Amino acid sequence: MSQESEEAIARIFKKFDVKNDGVIDFDEIKTVMKSVQLYPSNQKIKEIIKRVDLDRDGVINFKEFVAMRRSEEVCELNVLAQFKKFDVSKLHRGVITRDGIYTVLKEEGVSDEAIKEYTDEFMALDSNGDGFVSFLDLYESMMTRIPDEWLEWINTNVLRGVPDDTLMKILVENGFNQETAARLIDKTRREGRQVVERSYVDVGRGYVCGIKS
Description:
By secondary structure, the protein is an all-alpha fold. It has helices spanning 6-16, 26-35, 42-52, 62-70, 76-86, 98-107, 112-123, 135-142, 148-159, 164-173, 178-191, 200-203, and strands at 23-24, 60-61.
């Protein structure tokens, strides 16, 4: 995202700026959330805006939106922006497809080789193998939230007596860093099954696909 041009960022901004007045306000965030069947509380939407609203005027202007897109620090609005960027398929609305990624990146002038590499990495987020990346898939990756299916898998295998080094090997092979894997195994052994804190992302309907265990 740090390599996006202002023109590319402007195209995403326009998807949020429904009123076309140069800023993104509370109602517009709520509208975009509803478009992907997400229903956060009013307080949560205010928190999402506050995270990006640098001048504290209650809305997000284009300069603030650009700063968010180019920041190394991930926030929930940036996850939504990334999702809306690639949610362009006319055949499959509300999910990200290979063709959708290609269409967007080709328009940005990215080479075919770079598009393929990026698309393969992006589509690896598809948690249930249906060929689509859901908002939940993207959210859990960008916000580095551990999918509940992995917490269940760790607990099941800890109870079975599987050695820690075997669990570590499998987790690392599936994208976990060693520190996170070791922490999860240790906490599971000491405290039992770990639980993901539920949020508006988990209780959404429609486009937000539940993780299959």
